[in-house]
Design goal:
single chain; alpha+beta; Alpha-Beta Plaits; 4-stranded antiparallel beta sheet; globular; binds dioxo(di-mu-sulfide)dimolybdenum; Copper-exporting P-type ATPase
C-alpha cells in the first residue's frame, strides 16, 4: 500500500529528518519519502501491520501533523 500525506509543522531539514525517522520506526513501514518543500510525505507500508491512523499518530508524537491526502 502506498499513500500520500500532507504534513504541517516542518520548518527545517531536521524536522524533515524527525518525521522520516518517526515513521520509519513503525513496524510494517517499507519506505518513507518526506518533502519539506511540498509539506508532503509518501509512505509505502504493509496494511496488515500498520495503518493511516498509526502513521499519523507517529508523526503527531514527533511534534508535527499528518493527514492523508485527498
Ligand atoms: Mo528545525 Mo524542526 O531547527 O522541529 S528541527 S525547526
Amino acid at each position: 500500500m502506498k499513500k500520500q500525506f500532507d504534513v504541517t509543522g516542518m520548518t527545517c531539514s531536521a524536522c524533515q529528518a524527525n518525521v522520516t525517522k518517526a515513521v520509519s520506526k513503525l513496524d510494517g513501514v517499507e519506505n518513507v519519502d518526506v518533502s519539506l518543500l511540498s509539506n508532503s510525505m509518501r509512505v509505502e507500508y504493509d496494511e496488515a501491520k500498520t495503518s493511516v491512523a498509526s502513521i499519523c499518530d507517529a508523526v503527531e508524537h514527533a511534534g508535527y501533523v499528518a493527514r492523508e491526502k485527498g
